[in-house]
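User: Can you help me understand a structure? I only have the sequence.
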Amino acid sequence: MILRLNKLLVLFCLFSCVLTSQGQTHNASHETVLITSEDGATEVSANKKGKLHLNVSPEDVRKFKALGTVQYSDFGAKGNGETDDINAIAATHAFANQEGLLVKADQGATYYISGVKRTAIIQTDTDFGTAKFIIDDTDVEDRNTAIFKVSSNLEPVKLDGINSLKRNQSKINVSLPQSSLITVNNAHVKHYIRYGLNQNNGADQTDIFLVDKNGNVDMDAPIIWDFDKITEMTALPIDDKILNISGGHFTTIANDEESKYNYYSRNISIKRSNVVVDGLEHRVRGEGNHGAPYSGFISITDCCFVTVKNTILTGHKTFSTIGTAGKPVTMGTYDILIGRALNVTFLNCSQTNDINDRTYWGIMGSNYCKNLLFDNCTFSRFDAHKGVANATIRNSTLGHMGINAIGSGTFTVENSTIQGWSLINLRSDYGSTWQGELIIRDCIFKPREGTGNNISLIGGAYSGQHDFGYTCYMPEKITIENLKIDDSAASADYNGPAIFTNFNKEMTEESYIQAFPYVITKKVTLNNVTTTSGKALRVSDNVFMFRDVVVEGE
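Assistant: Let's start by predicting it. Here is the structure, written out as tokens:
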């Protein structure tokens, strides 16, 4: 049928490249929705290639625009928990995006979402309300396809003519239509050359930072690397208006694939700046004795100023596989994944399962981020793999996997209870590096069960024999105020907690040569640090390694 021009509204062809920390790519063809306004029924259909066609009658167009709202049932969603509703959901959002309408889920509906390759693009405020969404991962066409993608209609801009950058540079030579998130890459330099059971050859040098339309860098999220060359540089414009997503009860029926690193990304992917997610719940059912891991039900990438609040998530079961070193490893699997994102806040959030149950992996992972905040959260873990610049945990409780991080800037932990192996673990697979300062105040450290007598505040390991692609640092300055250490489970021969674990048991005298020297902490300031046992806080079992650290205070 040849459509008359005066009745052809728009051909929606929304596209982007989804890139997660696993390096997955994404075919955008399934996101195409053809929207027409022909006389006849309002209905959604799919052709043999899976492309959606939404026809909205002229009468319904007028009605929806007058209401300012559309619901999934308006475009054929049944909401009975059995009929696959993903096509109707995707079509609803496509029409809402075109007309700038609010999307509201039908109250009390249960939407079943099959494994078909389809993504609903969210570009307008969305109220999932009390509706339930069942996401069936037992048979999927493409495990990398998000269920919902929150995206901007602002186009990215490739930046040419900038050949180098310097750490803490305050301005770049660009003129942009508006404030933007800058991503920069140098394929000639490798960072984060991982050590251990999941060893690898590293990743291209990468940074993200904010600039205004005149190229002035926001120094609260500064450039953290020197770039001698630049192979790619992109400006992602920042939407001025906040996009709100509220409510929704989501349940994932877990995959039962072989336990290998085949990450599932059937999730809510946020790739737009200035987004608030409020009151969402995600649960998982059907996990058995094996399965592929997950890359975050809430995935936040290539964006900034995102807040997730009043939200309940779920840790995934831990499964094992063979790592790159040829030995068994437990696979990281996440309900929260944050990558190349700035100024991300989790506020008043928790998880459904016990934060100290070790059969479930730590709920959160991140890469290439700046200014991350947990406030009043109860989670099993905070984790920064490939670096975070500035992070804060406050008014929170973290469970068996505690705090794991590498990065730079200031890491602040306040008014919180931490229950991991150590108060803060500097990840040894990325060089146990923190180039900056740690501030710990008004906290309780309760070492997890099994720690025994080996209790330390700052954990990690560094042999000095592996090249991570950068100089590795311990925090230059550590300030600890009003800390209670619950070491009541220690045995009678316990010598008391240490500030630093034994980072290198081989490094006990001057003859030990580090091929890649570690920059040791200069100063630790203590104020009102107490232990349940009454035993005093020591510097470390490795007296030689930390011989030059100045400890002030109690």
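Now, to help you interpret it: The chain has two helices and 39 strands. Confidence is low (pLDDT under 50) at residues 1-30. Let me know which part you'd like to focus on.
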